[in-house]
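Lab notebook page, bench 4
Experiment: in silico fold of construct C2
Operator: M.H.
Input chain length: 522 residues
Purpose: comparison with the prior construct
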Amino acid sequence: MSIATEGPVRDRLTELTEIKALAAGGPDDQATARQHAKGKLTARERVDLLLDEGSFQEIEALRRHRATGFGLEAKRPYTDGVITGWGTVHGRTVFVYAHDFRIFGGALGEAHAAKIHKVMDLALAAGAPLVSLNDGAGARIQEGVTALAGYGGIFQRNTKASGVIPQISVMLGPCAGGAAYSPALTDFVFMVRETSQMFITGPDVVKAVTGEEITQNGLGGADVHATVSGVAAFAYDDEAACLEDVRYLLSLLPSNNRETAPRHPSQDPARRPTESLREIVPANTNQAYDIRAVIEEIVDDGEYFEVQPGWATNVVCALVRLDGHVTGVVANQPSAFAGVLDIHASEKAARFVQFCDAFCIPLVTLVDVPGFLPGVDQEHGGIIRHGAKLLYAYCNATVPRVQLILRKAYGGAYIVMDSRSIGADVSLAWPSNEIAVMGAEGAANVIFRREIAAADDPDAVRARKIKEYQSELMHPYYAAERGLVDDVIDPAETRSALIGALAMLRSKYADTPARKHGNPPV
């Protein structure tokens, strides 16, 4: 470099350093203090918690909007209210964008949206997960329809990336109106209590239209969406705990649909006996127990990551490791409504099955189900249609699938819970299994109703017919004798049997019909 150019270069480098400092620092200290006063971190603090230390590579930090009118031309901050880029989580590449509520309330405008579009396109091209840290006031009203078009571009990319790369939405502030549809299109939604809300129309509009009075948290807070609507998969008391679990979830997922989830070798022996399962599950089929105790006994080191634990609690969906390999578990929960399948449980399990299938995660289904929930509300609510979602998801899944029947497996619910007849690769059962069209008492009342009614002692005849039905059609080996169960195993062999079956299926290839896409029930 010549002496004549050294001065100008130094000036430019000084200018660059100052501009980047402005972009990194945000609007002012008061804005940061206001954010912290609400119990919320700044966008950059959140990114630092999510990603491995020092790994974040920011893009378009110097982007500024070019809108005019309503005073916008006088306020053109760097970043335009969203931080975008990539880094690593446990050493693996992850893309991220984070709304900066300190700038325009995190509202989305044309430049803001363009930054998000770019990082979404990069994530898809690189085949790496995308995490959005949401804390925004919706569309930037001053920019009109261009802001709405920006949301349309996000939705289109969410859909294009669905089933190709994992997409995780972390709600760390408000998310109202059309903006809420982007998280709904992603694979998992995390929320933080008190500070994050999601709704299409806010409390003021609800009151004006319906007369109902409700708070923001009561309408769309974390607990509402984690326990009532099912929109959120997880809810937390603080941002640090939330982002730590986002990191943990990412460690269980593949980077894209062409890879498998990373294997973590375990010190837990693959052939470890599981004798305690003989005691955990009561022999009395009417006695409740917690299926999570069964899962803990089976999986590596007793660790599992339950999805949507507060919603549709009569079915448990969890990501686990078996011999170090990530596996999805779907299980009926006898401690909640006797483990019956209903509308919400069917929806919850169906979406989890679809996710696991999309990302090459094998499935283990633990069955203890008395049937579908009867009732006018269920029928009028479309239990046929919603139950068919779970049936469709299993029938459509091409990943390795292993079914284990613990106790009850009655009627259509038995079929839907990944029976051999709908494509389970391996079906196992404990000696306590009861597979039938319905329970023995109900079956006897239907088959022998006339004989029972005409008897001098109806109760004695009914009891005799129930035993007869049980001995003929519900004994533990009935399904095995007909090839619908591959083996009846000692509960103490459960872990080794599941690991062995999954190991055998690891190279499974399933040829599917040529089609654009199916038409699943909705």
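Observations: The first helix runs from residue 3 to 25. The two ends are 66 Å apart (CA to CA).
Next step: discuss at group meeting.
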